[in-house]
Structures are given as structure tokens and as C-alpha cells.
Amino acid sequence: MLKVEHIGIAVKSLDVSIPLFEKLLNTPCYKKEEVASENVLTAFFQQGESKIELLEATAPESAIAKYLDKKGEGMHHIAFEVADIYAEMERLKSEGFILLSETPKKGADNKLICFVHPKNTNGVLIEICQEIR
Ligand code: CMX
Hints:
Keywords: Metal-binding
Number of helices: 3
CATH topology: 2,3-Dihydroxybiphenyl 1,2-Dioxygenase, domain 1
Order of helices and strands: EHEEEHEHEEE
GO molecular function, one term: metal ion binding
Family: Belongs to the methylmalonyl-CoA epimerase family.
CATH class: Alpha Beta
Organism: Chitinophaga dinghuensis
GO biological process, one term: L-methylmalonyl-CoA metabolic process
Oligomer: single chain
Largest sheet: 8 strands, mixed
Bound molecules: carboxymethyldethia coenzyme *A
């Protein structure tokens, strides 16, 4: 894996959390984007080579809504950039990790993404992602 591409943080309200993170990081949010297939609204901040992604649920069945109900606001996932997401998915599967989709999905910020179930990763939800070129 190449680098930590972003850290995802589940929040109740982007309207509240965007100004908070702008103050905290001393940098403006550069993009807000809805990912309808994931039922989330996202907001991104660049921090050097990595990003912070704030995630707000747009529907009760959203993974973010479930997470907020169960655990409250906080760190939701770590995303690693990979050079070849198909090869990396095969490698992770062969190592016994449980992938949450059979094929990469289209995520926010022009990425192909795939999640790894937190049960096999010490309780941390891992995303791998690759820029769509
Ligand atoms: N980090 C760590 N653990 C998590 C978690 C997270 N983000 N979300 C859920 N869990 C835990 C649950 O608390 C539960 O733990 P226990 O068994 O100890 O109670 C366990 O994982 C399994 O939970 P579950 O009830 O079987 O399943 P959920 O319905 O909560 O779904 C998960 C969990 C990870 C499979 C689901 O959230 C998923 O498919 N996530 C991938 C997609 C996603 O997160 N999309 C939103 C972000 C999209 C984006 O970044 O664009």
C-alpha cells in the first residue's frame, strides 16, 4: 500500500463539523460531495499528502447512521491508496481478509474503493482506494 490517503470521521452534521475542522486544521474544506450509493455526504480537507474526510449520513440505512447510533461521532475508517486495487483485493482475499464488496465501488473524490471488514483488522475499518484516471 502506498500511503494513508485519508482518515474518515463520522459526524452528525457537516454544517457543524466543517467550520470546526476548518478552525482545527487551519485549512478550508476543498470539496463537498454526495455519494448516493453509500448514503453519505462527504467533506474533504487536504493535510500534506493525506486528507481528512468528514462523513454525514443521508439515510437511516447508511453505514454512517448505524455507526453514529452505535458508537457516536468519531474515527470511522482509515483509507490506504493502492496502485492496483484489483490486485490488492486479490492479495487481501488470499491472506484471509474479508472484503465488503466483490468488485471495487465508485467512491467520493474520484476513487475506486473497497472496504475490509473490521472484525479481521483489530476493530479498524480499512478502505483501499485508487484514483480513477
Ligand atoms: N469501525 C470499526 N468497527 C465497526 C465499524 C467501523 N467503522 N462499523 C461497524 N463496526 C463494527 C460493529 O460495531 C460490529 O461490532 P460488534 O460485532 O463488536 O458489535 C461489527 O463491526 C459488525 O457490525 P455488523 O452489525 O455486522 O454490521 P454493520 O451493519 O454495523 O456494518 C460494516 C459494519 C463495516 C460491515 C459496514 O459499515 C460496511 O459495510 N462498511 C463499508 C461501507 C461504509 O462504511 N460506507 C460509508 C463510507 C463511504 C465512503 O467513505 O465514501
